[in-house]
């Protein structure tokens, strides 16, 4: 019997069971201090003004409820991605993320950084305290990822082999430093970085896929890719879809939960309907992320 993508969140566990995987390894999930999360949601409430289309938050609930629903979906580790948009913010966010990891048993200890004095020091401190995943947002932060101010931080991250989710594509809004060339310049300086390109780098899909092929530690995450919502402003070109089979071991599930304007199941359905086969789905939904996030103790 052919396995088909889940049409509703309640269908997710059965879908994963049919694929024969123990859960989901979603690398792109956000948890923030509650006042900051509310400000993010307020921003998306004005999405029609900012993006030209509504962006209703699907999972606008309290932290405890959001953790519970991710467990129901089958996430075996829950990231708490955050990102700084001004000096002096990253260290505070890292302190909060460390606390989140300590009080939520299946949380993944995350951290962030910003180009500012002392960034190398607090990135090393976060690594020493056990951070297993970092996030930076080039557009929101308004900085060049190859900035010399970040050299110490990138050097520490390259040596640690801890992954960094980087939003560097020019969708949904372009910025001064978005686009693949800035990331290519970063990788020319630090070719061993373990980078995960958020949203597959949309809309510069092909250029970021080229980076993944040129650098063996560059991955792409699926966040919002192929969904009906994203197809309205940044659809994958047909030529890119033809490349996805060859990128099977370099693609990792990402969702952007909770800040998505559709049910979580729709992201899985969107990937399923690409028609790339069950082996591809098993790799993308579980195997690649589990390997990168060291979830090897979880078995089918």
From TrEMBL:
One of the record's GO molecular function terms: hydrolase activity
Annotated keywords: Lyase
Domain of life of the native organism: Bacteria
GO cellular component terms, semicolon-separated: cytoplasm
Name of the protein in question: Amidohydrolase-related domain-containing protein
Domain Amidohydrolase-related: 26-295
Annotated Pfam families: Amidohydro_2 (PF04909)
Biological process according to GO: secondary metabolic process
Organism: Arthrobacter oryzae
Annotated Gene3D superfamilies: Metal-dependent hydrolases
């Amino acid at each position: 019997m052919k396995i088909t993508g889940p049409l509703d969140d309640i269908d997710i566990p059965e879908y994963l069971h049919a694929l024969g995987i123990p859960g989901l390894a979603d690398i792109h999930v956000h948890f923030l201090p509650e006042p900051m999360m509310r400000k993010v949601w307020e921003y998306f409430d004005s999405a029609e003004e900012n993006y030209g289309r509504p962006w209703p938050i699907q999972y606008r609930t309290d932290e405890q409820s959001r953790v519970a629903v991710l467990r129901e979906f089958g996430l075996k580790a829950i990231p708490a991605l955050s990102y700084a948009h001004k000096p002096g913010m990253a260290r505070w966010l890292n302190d909060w993320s460390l606390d989140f990891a300590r009080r939520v048993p299946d949380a993944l200890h995350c951290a962030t950084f910003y180009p500012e004095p002392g960034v190398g020091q607090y990135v090393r401190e976060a690594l020493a305290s056990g951070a297993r995943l970092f996030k930076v947002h080039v557009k929101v932060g308004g900085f060049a990822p190859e900035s010399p101010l970040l050299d110490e931080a990138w050097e520490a991250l390259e040596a640690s082999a801890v992954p960094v989710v980087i939003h560097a594509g020019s969708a949904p809004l372009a910025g001064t430093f978005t686009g693949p060339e800035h990331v290519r310049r970063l990788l020319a300086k630090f070719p061993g970085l373990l980078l995960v390109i958020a949203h597959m780098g949309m809309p510069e899909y092909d250029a970021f896929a080229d980076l993944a092929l040129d650098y063996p530690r560059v991955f792409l995450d699926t966040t919002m890719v192929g969904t009906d919502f994203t197809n309205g402003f940044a659809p994958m070109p047909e030529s890119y879809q033809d490349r996805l089979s060859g990128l099977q071991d370099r693609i990792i599930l990402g969702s952007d939960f909770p800040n998505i304007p559709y049910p979580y199941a729709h992201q899985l359905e969107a990937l399923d309907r690409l028609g790339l086969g069950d082996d591809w789905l098993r790799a993308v939904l579980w195997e690649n992320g589990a390997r990168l996030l060291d979830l090897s103790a979880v078995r089918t």
